[in-house]
Design brief:
The complex is a heterodimer of chains A (107) and B (389).
Chain A: E1 7-12, E2 18-19, E3 33-38, E4 41-50, E5 63-70, E6 75-81, E7 92-99, E8 102-106
Parallel strand pairs in A: 6-8
Antiparallel strand pairs in A: 1-2, 1-3, 4-5, 4-7, 5-6, 7-8
Chain B: E1 8-15, H1 26-41, E2 48-52, H2 56-59, H3 65-72, E3 80-83, H4 89-102, E4 109-115, H5 122-129, H6 145-160, H7 164-167, H8 169-178, H9 192-197, E5 200-202, E6 205-206, E7 216-224, H10 225-231, E8 236-245, H11 260-273, E9 282-284, H12 290-299, H13 308-313, H14 330-334, H15 341-353, E10 367-374, E11 379-387
Parallel strand pairs in B: 2-3, 2-4, 9-10
Antiparallel strand pairs in B: 1-7, 1-8, 4-7, 5-6, 8-11, 10-11
Classes of the chains: A mainly beta (107), B alpha/beta (389).
């Protein structure tokens, strides 16, 4: 299920609103969006380490999930791999791909 | 802003005890609270029934709670509504019932909430709670609701340089207050040190930062103010009932250390009630997690951003302080049966305002405010209630 891909997303041609998810109509101005590629870099805005996971994730815990501000792009929620103890707000992360439909970054 | 032609009052209050495991069905739980409220009000008919609930479809495989509960009460025939707004379902149900009454179409309205969460594994309940977030976009990361709130807590502590010790005062206060509430789920004092040493659930949040889920039900009987005194000597006026929404998902918010829904719902409530934060002397806030209690003090206008914990340190939120808060133990220690917590809050405010709060009673409350949060702030319900003298 690992998919090697650029960090693709959608941007509103009129008001610059953007998201990594496929959205045909901009929720801000109802303009048309076009597909774009964001730089594969971001910064951690906040994060947590999940120790009691929901159904289907039991075998993966503990794992880190973070809010990441993509450079020149939107804020996303994504998995972060690397040394969990070294994570901190402001840390730079690099996009590594989409795993089981979730964005993944490396710290 | 439009002023409604009518005013709503609470004429009856009922609450089932919150328990980690009640051994009761959804219907039995609801009946316990609803009958207590109906008997308290002394009404022999209802014009409408509103039931707040979040998870009955997923957990009990039971929907259509409106007629289910109305039938159990012998009220089949009246209009019924199940209201869902995640953990704010109860608060939103009260809002819907108040609007029915203010419309002039219904006079005697039962608004209640019910949730049964016992008998399920942690992954099952965790999965159910995550249904309040965007399933496709956010659920795929494996984040949990505690995890979302943990991200808020970390961002809040980082931005405002507030130590964990400061926000841990909130669960300490709630556990202390719940000691005197016979209907609370937890009767156990907790210290700041115990909060900080309890097991990590989702860093940085620990076990005692988190409210305890459970089984419960609370209900209110509402009537127009002009007839309320026919039923009870001590009606409580609902001076404002307000609901606001915000972007559903945490990643869609530029600043995760503030709930804009809380700000919007409370600003509207203050305007409707012609009150200011300084008029409020009784508070019941959505402390599902320690940091949310502290943020509520700020977002509702009682402290500047980053300074909510100061109120706790100064003792203002104690039952003998200037702003008694979560006087029955809050979500943390009264317990958090998610879809009905918003009704418990208003029921507790009503008991305080009518001098019926037992050992939880505070000296001279006159204006109470409740705040109930659904999801990660996507829905917020705020109510302002006051004594009708």
């Amino acid at each position: 299920m690992t998919q090697q891909s650029p960090l693709a997303g959608y941007k509103c041609a009129k008001c610059n609103w953007s998201d990594v998810f496929a959205v045909a109509t901009c929720p801000r101005c109802h303009g048309e969006t076009t597909q774009v590629t964001f730089p594969p870099e971001g910064e951690i805005a906040s994060f947590t380490i999940v120790r009691y996971p929901p159904q289907g994730f039991e075998k993966q815990s503990p794992y880190a999930v973070a809010l990441i501000d993509i450079k020149d792009g939107p804020r996303v929620m994504a998995r972060v791999s690397g040394v969990l103890e070294d994570l901190q707000i402001g840390k730079r992360v690099t996009f590594t791909g989409i795993v089981n439909e979730a964005l993944e970054f490396k710290a | 802003m439009i002023s409604p032609m009518r005013e709503a009052a609470i004429i009856g209050v009922g609450m089932a005890p919150v328990k980690s495991t009640s051994g009761k069905s959804l219907t039995e739980l609801f009946m316990e609270a609803a009958l207590e409220a109906i008997n308290d009000a002394g009404v022999d008919r209802l014009d409408a029934v509103y039931v707040g609930n979040m998870m009955s479809g997923f957990l009990q495989h039971q929907e259509h709670l409106g007629p289910l509960m109305a039938t159990a009460l012998g009220q089949e025939g009246v209009p019924t509504y199940k209201v869902e707004g995640a953990c704010a379902s109860g608060g939103v149900a009260v809002n819907a019932g108040v609007k029915a009454l203010l419309s002039g179409l219904d006079d005697i309205v039962l608004v209640g909430g019910v949730e049964k969460m016992s008998g399920f594994s942690t992954p099952e309940v965790t999965t159910g709670l995550m249904m309040a977030e965007d399933r496709l976009r956010v659920g795929a990361t494996g984040i949990t609701f505690v995890g979302l709130n943990a991200m808020i807590a970390r961002a809040y502590m980082h931005k405002y340089k507030v130590p964990h010790e400061a926000i841990a005062q909130f669960p300490v206060l709630c556990h202390k207050n719940a000691m005197d509430n016979p209907k609370a789920a937890f009767h156990k004092l907790v210290s700041v040190d115990e909060v900080l040493k309890s097991p990590l659930v989702s860093d940085p949040l620990r076990l005692f930062d988190c409210s305890g889920i459970g089984d419960g039900s609370a209900a209110l009987v509402l009537a127009p103010v002009e007839v309320a005194k026919k039923f009870t000597d001590t009606p409580v006026k609902i001076a404002a009932s307000s609901v606001a929404s915000d972007a559903l998902s945490l990643y869609q918010r530029p600043d995760v250390t503030v709930f804009e829904g809380s700000r919007k719902a409370s600003e509207r409530a203050y305007a409707l009630a012609h009150k200011k934060p300084e008029d409020v002397n009784l508070l019941d806030v959505h402390d599902a997690f320690s940091v949310l209690g502290v943020m509520a003090l700020e977002d509702l206008g009682f402290a500047r951003k980053g300074e909510g914990a100061k109120l706790l340190k100064e003792g203002q939120c104690e039952r003998d302080g200037s702003l008694p808060t979560n006087t029955f133990g809050g979500l943390k220690a009264r317990g958090h049966p998610v879809g009905t917590s918003g009704v418990y809050q208003i029921a507790e405010l009503a008991l305080q305002l009518t001098n019926r709060a037992g050992k939880c009673q505070v000296p001279h409350p006159s204006v109470g405010l409740s705040q109930s949060i659904g999801g990660i702030g996507g829905t917020v319900a705020v109510h302002i209630v006051e004594r009708l003298d």
